[in-house]
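Predict the 3D structure for this chain.
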Amino acid sequence: MKDSWMRGKYIEIDFKAAIKIQKNDHSYMEVLLDAIINERMFVHKFRYRQGFLDIEEPESLADIPKILIWLKDSFFDSIEYGKTLEKNITKYIMMIQKDIKITEDMISYVWEIFDRFEIQMYFRNLCVNTSYILKLINEQPRHLFEIPLNVKGVIFAKRPSTLEIDIMDSKDLPHVVSIKPYVVGKHYKIKLYDIGLLPGLMLEETPLNRGFRGKFQLGVCIHTIKDISKNALIDPDYIVVEPEKSYIQTSGIAYLDQRQSFYKHLLHSFPNSDIIVSLPKLLLLDIYFNQGNEIKLDGETLINHSVIYETELISLFKYPHKHIMLSIPDIEDVIDFDQIRKGLITICQQRFENCVKIGLEVNTEYTTYNLSSFKKFDFGMINMNEGFDMILPNDKYSSTYYMKYSELRGILYRKSKDTYIIGKDLEEPITFKSLMYKGFRKFTVKTELFEVYNSMIHRYNNGERLYRK
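Done. Predicted structure below.
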C-alpha cells in the first residue's frame, strides 16, 4: 500500500533533559524566537475574538506588538551562557514581572511564547534536509505540536491518548506503537499498518465501488485540501470533517476565507458522499494555546467561542450540497445537547435555509454511560479513541472491550439510529473484522486501508469467512 511506511533517521528526545545554552547557540535561538514572535504578532486579535486569549482589558491588545518587539532584545541581553534555558527563562520572567507596565495577562502570554520556544529548542540538532523518525521520552501532549516538518513519523512506547492521536492527525504525522529497540542515528523503514495474514485476501483486480458494499459503508476523515487530493481516487460513502484539526495548521485560527476554500473543494470533489461535520472540539485548541481549561460543549462554551462555530457554519453552507450532516461532540449533559441541537436546527433553517441531520458523538464518559438517556438525534458516532481512554482494557482485543461497543450499538439500534464508528483501532483488520461480525456497518477508516477493507466487505457479502492467523 502506498504511504504505508515511515522512513527516516531514528532519534530520541527526552523532554526532562536540561538544555544548557552556550554562546554558539545564540544565532539559532535568535532566529527561532524571532519566528515565534513574528507568528504571534499577527494572530493575537483573531485569538481574542475566538475566545482563546484571556485579557481583562481588550484595549491592551494594541500593546502586544510593541511588547513582543521589546521582548526579543531584552531577553537576549539577560542571558547567562552556561546555564540552562529553563533557568534563563525563569529569571527573565521574574525580571519583567517587576515592570509595572506589563500586566499579569501579558506575563501569561509571554510565558506561553517562551514555553513554545523551549520546546522547539529540543529539536535544535535536527538537520533541515534530513528525514527523521522520532521517539519522544517524558513528553506531554503540548510537545507534539512543535515537532518539525522533517520528522516523518513518531514511535510511542505505549498507545497514545486520544488527545495525542488528535494532535498527530492535525499535523498529518503518522505514528506507531512499538517497544522494539532502535539504534539512534540509524535509518529505518517502519511499516504503519499490520495487515497480518488473511488467507485469500487479495485486492480485487476490478475496483469495487460503493455498490459492492451492500449494507456496509466506508468513510474517511478529511480535514485539509491536501486530504481531498489524497482521497480523489476512492469512492467513500461518507466523509468526516473534524475542523479543529485543520486550525492547527493555521496557528490555531479558523480563518473564514481558508475554511470556505476548503469546503468549496470538498463539496465539489464529493457530490454524492455524505459530509458529516463535527462541531469543533475545543480541547485541542486549548492545549495548543496552553490554556489549561476543562472543555465541554454547552451554552457557555458556544457563547465564549461563538466566532469559531459561526465561521465553520458560514463556510460549510456557502456552497450547496445535498448530503450535509452535523455531529455534536463533547457533551456532558442531555439538556445541553437538546438545547444545542434545537439551536442548530433554527440556525440552519432560518439563516442558511438548510434542513440537516444532527447526530450525537459518543466521545465522553457521560455519553458513553448515559446513551440511552438521549432521545432526539438522527445518528450516533462512536469514537473508539475516547472509548479506549475510558475503558483502559488490559488487551485491546479483549471481548469485554468489544462488548462495550456492542452495547452502544445495541442502544442506537433499538433507537433506530444510524451508527458510525471511528478510531485508531480500526487501523487493524482484526478489529475491523470483529466489529463487522458484531453488527457494525459504517466504518471510518484510513485512506491507505480503504481498498483492503473494501475487499473484506466484498468477500463477507459473498459468504466467505474472514480469517486472521
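The CA atoms of residues 361 and 381 lie 5 Å apart.
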